[in-house]
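Title: Prediction job returns without error message
Component: structure pipeline
Severity: low
Priority: P3
Assignee: unassigned

Description:
Job completed but the reporter wants confirmation the result is attached to the right record. Sequence as submitted:
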Amino acid sequence: MLATSLVFGSILVFLFFIVGIMGGWVAREYMMNYQEGPQLHPEFFDTNGNVIPDEVIAFRFENDYDYDDSEDED
């Protein structure tokens, strides 16, 4: 009884493994071929809606949040 349940259980695990691999492969192919890529920001388009061929430069300004709140104590 134990041997037959182990055999059937291992066959079932193997079949689920194969189905999982095939399902993952199909999902990957769908995502790679049929999903849209990342959308561009409006800054990349000119007034006619065409993509600007020039290089876009980005600046990052950081505030200085390192306030020295400790006061000198005498």
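Comment from assignee: result matches the submitted record. The mean pLDDT is 85.
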